[in-house]
Amino acid sequence: MDKDTANDELRPEYDETLLKSGVRGKYADRYASGTNLVCLAPDVSEVFPNDEAVNEALRFVMRVVDDASRLTKSGG
Questions:
Q1: Structural domain boundaries of the chain?
Q2: Which of 25, 48, 52, 70 is 20 to 30 A (C-alpha) from 13?
Q3: For residue 17, what pLDDT is reported?
């Protein structure tokens, strides 16, 4: 057994020739663009039991801000 074989930890069922042509991080940007993780403070997470509850509350805030903006612009 030579030195390279002794340090080889690749399982025999994997074809090393296929692994050498791979591109590291090929799909990292695609994955990251579809993933938005937000850490909530403990007091906030106690009030919102899941992601849908947080989204619903934020959508409500967005509507309130939009309505207030329109009222300010129209002077009413």
A1: 42-76
A2: 25
A3: 79
